[in-house]
Design a protein that fits this description.
The protein has about 450 residues and is of the alpha+beta class. It is built from six helices and 21 strands. The strands form eight sheets. Strands 2-1-3-5-4-20 form a six-stranded mixed sheet, covered by helices on one side. The protein has a three-stranded antiparallel sheet with strand order 17-16-21, with no helix packed on it.
Amino acid sequence: MLGLWTAPAHAFRTTQDSESAVGIEGPVAWFEPPVPYELNEAGSDDLSFDVLSAAVMRGFNRWTEPACSGLRLEYLGTTTRSAIRRDEQPTVAWVERGWSDLGYPAGAIGVTTPQYGSRDGRTWFITEADMEMNGVNFRWVENGGVPGGTTVDVEGIVTHEAGHWFGVLHPCEARGQDGAPDCLTDHTWDATTMFPAYVGEEQRSLEQDDIDAICFLYPGGGGGCEETGCPAGQTCSADGTCVPAADCRTTGCPAGQTCGADGICTGGGGCEVTGCPPGQSCIDGACRVTPTGTLGDYCSSNAACASGLCTLGADMFCTQFCATADPCPDGFRCTSIGTNSVCEPTEGRLGDVCTDNGDCLSGQCAASSDGNFCTRECGSGVACPDGFGCVAGSGTRLCKPEDDGCGCSAPGARRGAGVGVLLALLALAAVWLVRRRPR
């Protein structure tokens, strides 16, 4: 990307407009609405739970109001769970102690961290999100709030953070970070909900730029996808909803096969009888590329793994189910994810400390002024996961840990510099322990 910012075809910004998302095709939205969220029952120390929960719901629901949007929500109720990434639970929670221990700047009012997945490495979607609100450095009120102060309007902030939850970015950034317009010199977006600094109750209402963004990500508005179309990687089904493109609910099945609830053709008369082309295997009655990924190998979908299981998150690797009676092999531990337990590497994950390439699952160890850490290449359609920036390395671009989440701040508060360092892959024996991400 050139150093000068060139306005995209739309004024708003979504995940695909981030510098780390070069080459991503189509909108990056929740894959299968309704979009879920739940609220930690501990609430906020500053407000009654009834007041807080009502404001949270209004903030989320605000984004469903534009007539051009097909966004649908599902409130899952209250939970005792904290906001923990990659736990498959979309949690909103107030943090009343230990905010700095989480690595967030004191001036960040709220931090929202979507998690992403992809079936093919080009089209991406949101699989989970968490929202954490700073109850340590800010006082939350039902109405009012002081721009530039430490008293903030709960509904306005939730509305802003919910935009991130759905995949909307700030329309501008201070000093033009992440390839965005510079908020300090261009005041076009000062009145928008997604403006990156708190400006008061005005952030409760959506401006046209915000509306355009949500309708771009979740087109709808009564006519169904026959009129609005679908995001990349999805197609319009007979009932007017967007479904995965390779979905037999839309494409149908070969003679003798039936379409399952998951959109996959199964049953006799298929490849069990006819066989499959070279390099493909008959799996559940359908021809698929023969999976070759072993435990710990890089993967972009379940189909890449011999076990049929690929994790989604900061690291994407082939895994397998485990239990006390069926433990993981050496170098892996059995970790609970939802109601299941899977094998997770004990070291070598993205961002872990390393001394050479062999220490990392990706086979890539980077050196920087902050120390050595496991990395992988990015750019050219390959985005870094949440919490990592795609920065310049030696002849390539690499994922480097940065400040997590939105880090939406009060005016004058600055986020950490994070990615202002040149990375270099360690010039040690380049032993590739895992397959590199396909291009």
